[in-house]
Design brief:
The protein has 664 residues and is mostly helical. Helices cover 58% and strands 5% of the residues. The longest helix has 32 residues.
Length: 664
């Protein structure tokens, strides 16, 4: 039977007569435009971000030069310590560096291509559920989400984690169609690698996939349960091999696993990068026991913005306030509205209804992740919300298509208007918070969405057929315009450091009534080179390049070491890792110095350290010597020993101790 225009919007395309061929041709053209456009926008001028987060850039550099560093995600080529996350992201960037040579482009272009992959997968999943037009809309929404524009051009592990979560969702959509254990197992494999990208956060989509399959898959309940067990086994195999590798590999022959208290991968999973982040005990590392920077300390550094750290108090409104609001909330209310109207619209359909199954995949994904982000008490950055961007995009696409397919009913027109109006009004509220930037934009978008939304509800008969294209255009412009403007502004700005933020550059504006600090809107967060990253020094870099020891220098904390590594292209020992890890002990450090494995000990001067991240609080005093604020933590014994045995010299903003001639 020939499909109507409604069905073309709400169901996958089928082979047929000439019209089907024309439809398929236009679908292919639209998909090509979507993917090529996404690639161009995300890759264009990507090197503006330089080394992005120097902490991960140093690991990518190390992986581009050393296979063991690549395998374990080591911060340095001599494999002293890893970054504080599993290595999947470093595998991608490091392999790219091995193929093309390490550079900003070789590191960041793979991240941009992950955006293209995520958009393609969302398009594919939504198209299979609700038609090509819905898939196209979902792909556009994802590509133009501000946090996606930020993080798919950055070197944090969030991009590859979200891509793998989207792969898992796509595979589950395929599995729902015919109760396919193969596709469900592939979803498990994708989740296993998402776990190896960012641990438990990568698995937060798993309840949504399991619920959707258990409810909708067209087979008996025992088989559904058996298929889910098979997917779980696939996930455990895909992630467990690396865990076993770290356990079997001799600890003294691999880098220390940063963030763990005992150099054990599962300790890292369950502690620093696991439940501790949710429960609020994530920042202390192995010895320090500190909880990470307070909102007050972040405001002191960032002028009230929190540097993108997302320091809004835990609660149901967190994702709508501060930096969270600008990064992810533009279409969050609309996505929740879409989830609701889809479930109502499909309420009387059979259990095996795949559109309802798709809504469960993306809706439960959104709700579970949003609740965790809203109420977690540990360290949280606003950019973590990239994890729900695909779910928002998919729900908007499916919801619009579903309401369009029943637009002859009042519920369909009201639902369509509600999705658009919610987006437009909330976008206007967000733009008002940064009212000095394009102040007219919010009123234009509000007028457009009001015209489109109200018109869709009140027009009827011949009027609807004539005016619908114009009304749909107004609703889309008004609903998507605010987030799109912020995404475009994000593309234009350089982003570096440990806490990047979205939007336009600061122009004497304010956000949420707070003054924008020196980091600026869309700025680098704090520390310039990342959390605690030191200042660049060409003189010090030249000194380190002349060394021949295994490590050219040792310095407190990974981010400071990363700055030196990127500048000198040498291996630097990161004492204490990122979060005060128990590596090395004083005895181990003295042994390395005695056996001439490290040449210099480096400290930022007091002035520099005071400008670094607030978690580096504390001052040992003493003028330039001993200015490293971090040293008051668990490794002050090493600093004290160095001060007692070596004479300081000063190189730019650093205090340097030459340890090359030491004998026990």
């Amino acid at each position: 039977m020939t499909q109507t225009s409604d069905q073309l919007l709400s169901a996958p395309q089928t082979a047929g007569g000439p019209r089907s061929h024309v439809e398929n041709l236009w679908q292919r053209i639209a998909l090509a435009v979507l993917l090529v456009g996404t690639a161009i926008v995300y890759i264009w001028n990507i090197s503006i971000n330089g080394n992005a987060n120097a902490f991960y850039a140093a690991a990518a550099q190390a992986g581009s030069q050393n296979w063991k560093a690549l395998l374990f995600g080591s911060l340095d080529t001599s494999n002293f310590i890893t970054v504080d996350k599993p290595p999947v992201s470093q595998w991608v960037m490091g392999l790219s560096g091995q193929l093309f040579g390490f550079s900003s482009a070789s590191m960041l272009i793979p991240e941009a291509l992950m955006a293209v992959g995520a958009v393609a997968l969302i398009y594919g999943a939504v198209t299979r559920l609700s038609g090509a037009r819905a898939g196209f809309l979902a792909g556009v929404v994802l590509a133009l989400t501000p946090v996606a524009a930020l993080m798919f051009r950055f070197d944090n592990p969030d991009a590859v984690m979200v891509l793998l979560m989207t792969v898992a969702a796509y595979c589950t959509v395929r599995a729902l169609e015919k109760a396919s254990p193969r596709w469900l197992a592939l979803a498990g494999v994708a989740l296993g690698f998402a776990f190896l990208a960012k641990m438990l956060e990568g698995l937060m989509v798993m309840p949504a996939l399991a619920i959707a399959y258990l409810v909708v898959a067209p087979t008996s309940l025992p088989k559904r349960l058996l298929h889910l067990v098979g997917a779980l086994v696939s996930m455990m195999i895909a992630s467990g091999w690396f865990v076993i590798l770290t356990l079997l590999w001799p600890a003294d022959a691999r880098p220390y696993l940063a963030g763990s208290t005992d150099n054990n991968f599962m300790n890292l999973v369950l502690g620093y990068n696991g439940f501790a982040r949710i429960l609020g005990r994530s920042g202390g590392g192995a010895r320090g026991g500190a909880s990470g920077p307070s909102p007050e300390a972040l405001d002191a550094v960032s002028g009230g913005r929190g540097g993108g750290m997302g320091n809004a108090a835990p609660g149901i409104g967190r994702l709508f306030t501060g930096e969270f609001g600008y990064e992810i909330s533009w279409l969050l209310p609309s996505a929740l509205m879409a989830f609701f109207v889809i479930l109502v619209s499909r309420g009387r359909r059979p259990r095996t209804d795949v559109i309802r199954g798709g809504a469960l995949i993306f809706g439960v994904w959104l709700v579970v992740d949003a609740l965790v982000f809203s109420f977690m008490s540990g360290t949280i950055h606003a950019y973590y919300t990239l994890a729900i961007a695909p779910a928002i995009a998919a729900l908007v696409g499916i919801g619009v298509a579903e309401m369009w397919s029943i637009r002859e009913r009042l519920f369909g027109r009201i639902g369509l208007a509600a999705i658009a109006l919610t987006a437009g009004v909330w976008g206007c509220v967000l733009l008002q918070r940064n009212s000095n930037w394009l102040p007219e934009l919010r009123w234009v978008l509000l007028a457009a969405v009001l015209i489109g939304s109200v018109g869709l509800v009140v027009t009827s008969g011949s009027q609807r057929r004539i005016l619908t294209p114009l009304l749909i255009a107004c609703a889309l412009i008004g609903g998507l315009g605010g987030g799109t403007a912020y995404a475009v502004a994000t593309f234009e700005q350089p982003h570096t450091g440990g806490s990047p933020a979205v939007g336009p550059k600061a122009q004497n504006s304010s956000r949420d009534g707070q003054s924008v600090g020196a980091s600026g809107i869309g700025g680098s967060g704090f520390g310039g080179s990342g959390f605690g990253g030191g200042a660049d020094s060409s003189a010090l870099d030249s000194m380190l390049r002349t060394t021949t020891t295994r490590w050219s220098a040792a310095i407190d904390r990974s981010s400071a070491a990363a700055t030196l590594e990127l500048g000198s292209n040498t291996a630097v020992m990161a004492i204490g890792g990122f979060s005060n890890d128990p590596a090395p002990t004083l005895a181990e450090f003295v042994s390395d110095v005695t056996n001439h494995r490290v040449t210099y000990f480096v400290e930022p001067t007091q002035t520099q350290s005071q400008s670094q991240a607030p978690e580096e609080g504390g001052d040992r005093g003493g003028g330039k010597v001993g200015g490293n604020a971090r040293a008051g933590g668990g490794h002050s014994d090493i600093t004290t020993w160095v001060h007692a045995h070596f004479t300081p010299t000063f190189v730019d903003d650093y205090t340097v101790y030459d340890m090359s001639s030491y004998t026990a």
